[in-house]
Amino acid sequence: MQTKALLSYLYFQDDHIIIDEITPKNRFGEFVNNETKLRSNSVSKSLVSYVLGHAICEGYIEGVDSTMNDWPLVKNTLYENQKLIDLINMNAGDQKYIDSNSSMGGFMAGYNTDTNSIYKTMNFFKNIKKSKPVYNYHDLLPNIIFNYILFKSGNDFQKILDKVYKEKAKIKNSVYFFKLREREEYGNAHNMFFATRYDYLRIAKAVMDDYQNDTCVGKYLKNIYEKRIPKNNKKPALEPHYQRSSSYGGYFHLDYPGLKKRVVFGMSGYGGQTILIDVENSRIVVINSSHYNNTKYKFNHKKLMLNPIKKGK
Predict the structure, then answer these.
(1) Is residue 269 helix, strand or coil?
(2) C or N: which end of the chain has fewer Cβ atoms within 10 Å?
């Protein structure tokens, strides 16, 4: 905590917080306390998946094998006839058109899908066919799914979010997703998420409780785990050490090194944001960090992430 860019470290086991560390006053303590809303980065992809599970269980969406054929924004696009499971597995066959930086290729080089509405972005995916599906990690797909939930739930969208975070996770402070400055019908919901350090833990525990209690959402989590795909990532540099799992399912990183025989749901975001949930052994690690992607700031991911999940405390 004194030498790296870590803001918060929480280790939870068997209904107790075992390790609780926050950046000291002489480090980042002037800016970070227990009420500070911390940026999720791509951890939010997994949080969208959790919302999707609730939307399915509340009856707004049929299931992960259904398609978005009823949504005008994706009509006649590469994504129209695809199953939701392919989008939440980053397996949509769109690798010729978009990369891990959410940037378009070819004549749309430089266009960033992460800062534009679904309506505007889908204009560039019209009347094109998907390629042979491979794992292709980027930000567009969770924004598509998030806005499809918005479309299907209509005026009940906030009701679903309240169900997930207020009723299920029992957050103490407010949490929020981004919203683009666009009309709602154009797809203005954005997956970037902010919450306090303890509320991230509360959300992670809600995920674990659903899985363990075999609730409807727990069955959804087990379903996406069973339908996970191998990453087969030939460019490991795109994924820092802290998220180099070998499988991916439903916007969760799965099958981590040394934990491949364990059911561990991983959420991961740029800069070192990490949540690992060992749903079988009731262990959770939550890391918030201001930086990681530089040698000077890299924390020991094996010591802080993998070993606690593997060995416990």
Answers:
(1) strand
(2) C
Q: Give the full edge-to-edge strand order of the sheet including 176-179.
A: 38-39, 189-195, 176-179
Kindly report the number of other CB atoms within 10 A of residue 1's CB atom: 15
Residue range 136-157, pLDDT digits in tens: 999 999 999 999 999 999 999 9
* Structure token pair of residue 214: 């075999």
- Residue 128 corresponds to which tokens in the numbers above? 């094109």
Note the pTM of the prediction, 2 decimals: 0.95
- Cβ(7)–Cβ(23) below 8 Å: yes
Rounded to whole angstroms, the Cα distance separating 5 from 8 reads 9
End-to-end CA distance of the chain: 19
Quote the CA–CA distance of 296 and 235 in Å, as a whole number.
Answer: 22
Q: Phi then psi for 107, rounded to 5 degrees?
A: -70, -10
